[in-house]
Structure formats: structure tokens, C-alpha cells
Amino acid sequence: MLHTCSPIPNALSHSVDISQPAPHFPSPSFPSILETLSSSPSPAPSISAPSISAPSHPTPNPSPIPLALNTHSMTTRSKHGIFKPKVFHTTTNDYNETEPPTYQLASKYPKWCTAMDEEYSALQRQQTWSLVSPPIGKNIVGCKWVFKLKRNSNFSISRYKARLVAKGFHQQHGIDFQETFSPVVKPPTVRLILALAVTYDWPLQQLDVRNAFLHGVLQEEVYMSQPPGYVAPNLPQHVCKLHKSIYGLKQAPRA
Fold it and tell me: How far apart are CA 226 and CA 219, in angstroms?
């Protein structure tokens, strides 16, 4: 039930006319009051105040308060007349130039569809999983597509990259993962290699390994739902039993 507030009662039940002077009632002296009380036991008659009406002319508005001038010594953009207008985006984003947040948006653009096809083909070539019936009592990990734009040094688009990522937060310790530690290279080692390359004039090359995690064999039984947009039409209820590690799993870096 909606709450309705009752109106606040007006403190002045009678209107007041400030244009007419208030009548003057002479106050009786103290002895006369005592005589009246002793001679007459009846209560004194009440005196009603005259009705006074409100003025009809409007009340003038108060004069605006002048704004204080900024006399601080700090230099700001507003002091130099520099103002950045607010930009309101009313058009839809062009996801050929930006990264789509969801699969539903990416599936409408051919370039992102090609990137997903390449990722899915790599997963199939590496025999990352096999479709099985959902096992009873086993944890099923979800998955999603993550999209990334690879750019050149001049910020032009180099490659559209789509990656299938497992939702590792669905995993349960002791059931579908054990250890998550992975050996990593230390920054002093990288600096030492760079120093040697500069000293001996060695050539340096940057290498981007595609699907680096797909070469690690899993020791645990991990079941994942089928990727969005790539559900087998003849086996829509089946799940993926992972044989190789995949991005997003807690044990993927160690594997």
C-alpha cells in the first residue's frame, strides 16, 4: 500500500492584514483586576481578535546575491575561457573499430565471426575436448567469448582476436582443480637478457604464440558447457570434457 502523507496543518488559522494597524486595548491596573475577581465569580468574557486579511499586492523578489570572484592564484581553464563541452553519444558503437562486450553483438560483424571461427578451428585441431553426456554429480563450468583488438604502433587495427575463456569461478577446489601455482619469469632475468642483447648486438624479436595454453594436458576431470554459437545441432545437451587446458581455468597456467 502506498504511503500518503497527511497535509501539515496551518499554524495561522486566520489571515492577517498588515495594512491596518492593530487596535490598542488599554491594560487594566492590578487593583481593578483583584476587585473584579472578588466581586464576580463568573469568568471574564473572552475578547475575539478582529479578522485581518492578507495584503493583495505581491511581495517583491529579493535581489540576487552577487557571485564571489575567484581570486585564487591557481591558473585554471575556466579563467582562460576554456570549457570542454559535454558530448552525448546518441549513435550506436561501430564494433568494427571497438571491442564488443558480448557474443550477441560480435556475431553481427563478419570480422569478429571470422576471428571466432579461427579460434574454434584451433580448439578442434588441438583436440581440446570431446562431447559427452552431462555426468551426474559433476560440476559444469561455463564459458564465454572475449574479444580483443590487436593494434599496430600507429594505432591501426592489426588483427581481430577472439578467445574462448572458461569461467574459472565456477570451479570447486578438490573437484576440478588442485594446484594453481605456475612458475613465472622474474623481471631481473628479462633485464639481464636485454642488457646482453645490447652489449653483444644481438637481434631481438617479439613473438606472439596463439593458443599457448592449449598444449597443456589436464590431469583433473573438467567439464565445460559448449561455446556460445557453436553448439552441436545433433547433441545440444552434451557438454565438453576438457583434455587440454583452456584460458580461464585456475590450473591453466600450471598445465
Answer: 20
Q: Is the entire prediction scored with pTM above 0.70?
A: no
The 10s digit of each residue's pLDDT in 107-127 is 999 999 999 999 999 889 888
For the segment 146-200, what is each residue's pLDDT rounded down to a tens digit? 999 988 888 888 889 999 988 877 676 766 666 666 667 889 999 999 999 999 9
Q: Give the separation between CA 219 and CA 168, rounded to whole angstroms.
A: 16
Positive or negative, the CA dihedral 199, 203, 206, 207 is: negative
What nine digits make up the cell of 255?
598445465
Q: What is the DSSP string of 5-66?
A: PPPPPPS-SS---TTSPPPP-PPPPHHHHHHHHHH--SPPPP-PPPP-PPPSSPPPPPPPPP
What residues have CB less than 8 Å from 61, skipping those under 6 apart? none
Report how far residue 251's alpha carbon sits from residue 253's, in angstroms, rounded to the nearest whole number.
6
Among residues 141, 134, 137, the alpha carbon closest in space to that of 237 is found at: 134
Q: pLDDT tens-digit profile of 23-72? A: 555 555 545 554 555 555 555 555 555 555 555 555 656 666 655 677 78
Domain boundaries, the chain: 103-244
